[in-house]
Every structure is written in C-alpha cells, then in structure tokens.
Amino acid sequence: MQIVSILIDVVGPVFLVALVGYIWAKSGNPLDSGFVALIVNSLATPCLIIDTLTRSGLKVSALGEMAAAAVVSMSITLALAYLLLRTMKLPVKTFLPALTWSNGGNIGLPMCLFAFGPQGLSLAIAYFTISSLSNYTIAQGIAAGGMRFGQVIRMPIIYAIALALTLVVTGTQMPVFAARAVQLIGGIAVPLMLLSLGYSLASLTVASLNRSLLLSLARLLGGFAIGWFTAWLFGLTGIARGVLIIESAMPAAVLNYLFAARYGNDPHEVAGLVVISTMVSVFLLPLFLYTVM
Length: 293
What we know:
mainly alpha, Na+/H+ antiporter like fold
C-alpha cells in the first residue's frame, strides 16, 4: 500500500532521527543547542544551499517562482491565522508567529528530499529561505512588538544564495576541492537540524492540550489547504506543486517558542503548539504526501 510505503520510507527516517535527539535528551546526555544552532545557521545550511542549488540543474526562474509562491502562501496563512486568533480571543503576539511560520527547515527539507529527490530539496530550499528570512524579521517583530529587518544583512544564507545564484547564472563551477568541501559541510545540516529538533522537544511541555490540539490542526490542515490553493493559483505541477503543499503543511517551528520565551509571550502555550503539531504531523504528513506524490 503506497501510504504505508510513504510512512516508512519518507516520513519514517525524518522522525526517527528526531527521536534519537529526543532520547538523547531524555537520557541526560548533553547537547549544546546554542553551538548546534550556530553551526547549522552560519555554516552548514549556507553550504547546503550552495551545494544543492549549484547541482540541482534547476533554472533560476523555477526557484524564483517557488519563492514567490512561498510569499503568497505565508501571507495568506498570516491573514487567516490573525482572523482565527481574533475570533478565539487569543493573544496575537503569543500564537500568530507559531501558527504562521512552520518547520520548513528541520522537517520540511529532509521530507522533500526523500519524497521528491534533489530537485525537491532545491525547491524546498527556495521556500525555506523565504520562510527563514521572514521568521527572523516579521515573526520576531510580532513577538517583540517591533520589526527587526536589520538582522537580515547578518544572515549567512543571504550571501550563500547570492553566491549560488551567481554560479548558476554564469555557469561557473567551483574548483573540485572546494565543491567537495562545501558538499561535506552541507551534509551535516539536515542531521543536525533533526537531532536538535528532537532534543528541543524533550524539554517542552504542553500547557493546554485541547487548545494546543485545535491550533495544531489549524496549522497543519490549514497550511495544507493554503498550499494547495497557492499551487493552483501559480499553476504549479509535479515536484514544484508537491514541495509547496508539503512545506506549507509543516508543524509549528521551535524557533517561535524561543521568541515567545525571549519576549515573555506565554512560552508554555507556544511550546504546547510546537509539541502537539509535531506529534500530529507524524500521522497527517503521510496522508498529505499521498495526495501529492
């Protein structure tokens, strides 16, 4: 049965590695989350971007189209999530970032790689780039009560994307030794993301199960529906359509819990949304993938 194969071969490896990180934490073993985040964000992910985009064979126009679709998908999500929170009379600063910005990196990148191959990973990186940039600016601004666009120029992925696109457009190839070094460093990004995700989840607790479950379903099912609509709007087909829908349907990102904790926006409530949406996604993502593969 195809859905069982998807569960085992695509979803299984992603959550198995995250489970290793969770067990590692529960066993009392150390993992310096700050160091891992620094390595992933400053070195491994930029190398992954350069390596993947330069070897994908995709045209810049295809990557640009995915980035534009990501902007539209997240804009729709932001607007609808705001309306939902106002209707439920829940604090916008607490819940809006987690409802809008999903885990398109830790879970989305490996999921798209296993489901759609190297081209899927390249397109997922285009989506993830938009998500990551807006998460550190708009989402953090919502949590903090003010935008912080100055951070963008200090994000290494900006320069990694610029370099990768320059190489693709000009047809320039890196020296073999440099390309292999970049590939080796980029190769640690996804495993570290997943281990860090599992490790972080082990320390989070659920404040309100019913509310967390309701908002988690809104994040996952709503994201899936919005991704589907946006793919139709842009006329996307094949791998591009699948990547957009799956990336849009990811669970809430751990990063938004960190923002809530930093700015005092009921972090335990956000933790519940992160934990429950991740747990529920184990069951929903195979169904989502089944519809787009």
